[in-house]
Design a protein that fits this description.
Length: 79
């Protein structure tokens, strides 16, 4: 794309349905909000989410912490 082309992607927060190994776009947008940290995650960079909780996460450490808090994984050392 050159500087004369317009980016026609919708701006703002996307709404996604989180599935096993993929997600479905319910409402198009450029980012989702991490359920734990509140950081904006570009949809193109989203790699971590919970199907059961229907939540996105910024990184694997945050995802593991949330899974432990919700009882989805055993509590233990993360190191």
């Amino acid at each position: 794309m050159n500087k004369m082309d317009r980016d026609l992607r919708p701006e703002g927060q996307a709404v996604l349905e989180y599935l096993d190994g993929e997600f479905r776009v319910v409402k198009a947008g450029t980012y989702v909000v991490c359920a734990v940290t509140g950081v904006h995650i570009p949809v193109d960079a989203l790699r971590y989410w919970s199907v059961d909780l229907q939540e996105p996460y910024a990184n694997p450490v945050v995802a593991l912490k949330r899974m432990q808090e919700s009882g989805k994984t055993p509590q233990g050392s993360t190191t």
